[in-house]
């Protein structure tokens, strides 16, 4: 039996932020795939929940007038993977979505919950980092926009206040236009396993040289990261096997890989190098 003291189910965002303003000790739940596991294991006692499941206004994917792509926070991973906008413009995010869990989990888990959980292994995070996503947060007092790189503050810790709700995620046209991206996940099993390493590579070429290269890693540091030194090194660099290997080595240096029960530091660094190389080839071939 779940130890739930109370659950509130607002019908609008305005009602949700008002409830949260009056009681910011409420635990926000959307798909519930993370919270329910913690409840099942007894990690949360007499919890009070604020459920967003009825907020259909946050379940959407659309292109705004300025060609920015906006994704509502309660959009589930199945819908992200199947959506034509995602497939046409940011398929790497769809690759991350379909790699998460099994069909039942993807039908329930939401992108907002995946981000706000703060897990370094979140399958949406590397793609959102690589595409410079921005997060729209709302409280009873107003809204603020936070770049994704400023949102993750540590393992399981994110830059969201107790009275705030994640409304949507933005990816601007300048960050997805004219580039190709891919997401590669490595895990111990081929299905329904937590990522041992996630790599998103985004690139564009001009005259056989790197015009733009972005490399984002999950499970390679205390938070998802961008490999800025590798990206800077790659700009204007000629396309060659040697240069691609050097770029990947810079990506390894950007990481803070560590030993864990799932993999040693040395093995993770090997994966970073190999998957970065594979990702670069995939988006430039």
Automatic annotation (TrEMBL):
Q: Does the keyword Flavoprotein apply?
A: yes
Give the EC number(s) listed in the UniProt record: 1.17.1.4
The protein's name: Xanthine dehydrogenase
The highest taxon in the source lineage is: Bacteria
One GO CC term on file: xanthine dehydrogenase complex
One molecular function GO term is: FAD binding
In terms of NCBIfam families, this protein maps to:
PRK09971.1 (NF007427), XdhB_XDHase (NF043083)
* Pfam families attached to this UniProt entry: CO_deh_flav_C (PF03450), FAD_binding_5 (PF00941)
Give residue ranges for domain FAD-binding PCMH-type. Answer: 1-176
Q: Which UniProt keywords apply?
A: FAD, Flavoprotein, Oxidoreductase
Source organism (scientific name): Clostridium sulfidigenes
Q: Which SUPFAM superfamilies match?
A: CO dehydrogenase flavoprotein C-terminal domain-like (SSF55447), FAD-binding/transporter-associated domain-like (SSF56176)
PROSITE patterns for the chain: FAD_PCMH
Matching entries from SMART domains are given as: CO_deh_flav_C (SM01092)
**Can you tell me which residues the record assigns to a coiled coil?**
none
Enzyme's top EC category: oxidoreductase
């Amino acid at each position: 039996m779940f130890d739930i003291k109370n659950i509130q189910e607002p019908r609008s965002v305005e009602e949700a932020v008002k409830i949260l303003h009056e009681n910011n000790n409420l635990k926000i739940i959307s798909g519930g795939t993370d919270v329910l596991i913690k409840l099942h294991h007894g990690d949360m006692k007499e919890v009070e929940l604020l459920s967003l499941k009825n907020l259909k206004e946050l379940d959407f994917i659309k292109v705004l007038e300025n060609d920015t792509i906006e994704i509502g926070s309660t959009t589930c991973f199945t819908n992200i993977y199947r959506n034509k906008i995602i497939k046409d413009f940011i398929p790497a995010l769809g690759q991350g979505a379909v790699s998460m869990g099994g069909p039942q989990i993807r039908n329930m888990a939401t992108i907002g919950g995946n981000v706000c959980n703060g897990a370094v292994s979140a399958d949406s995070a590397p793609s959102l980092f690589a595409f410079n996503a921005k997060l729209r947060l709302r409280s009873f007092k107003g809204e603020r926009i936070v770049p994704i790189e400023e949102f993750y503050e540590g393992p399981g810790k994110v830059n969201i206040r107790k009275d705030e709700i994640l409304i949507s995620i933005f990816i601007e046209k300048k960050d997805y236009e004219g580039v190709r991206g891919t997401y590669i996940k490595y895990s111990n099993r081929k299905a329904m396993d937590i990522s041992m390493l996630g790599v998103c590579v985004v690139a564009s070429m001009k005259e056989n040289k790197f015009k733009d290269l972005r490399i984002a890693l999950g499970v390679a540091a205390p938070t998802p990261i961008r490999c800025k030194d590798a990206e800077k090194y790659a700009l204007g660099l000629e396309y060659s096997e040697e240069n691609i290997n050097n770029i990947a080595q810079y990506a390894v240096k950007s990481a803070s890989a560590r030993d864990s029960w799932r993999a040693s530091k040395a093995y993770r660094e090997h994966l970073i190098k190999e998957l970065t190389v594979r990702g670069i080839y995939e988006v430039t071939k």
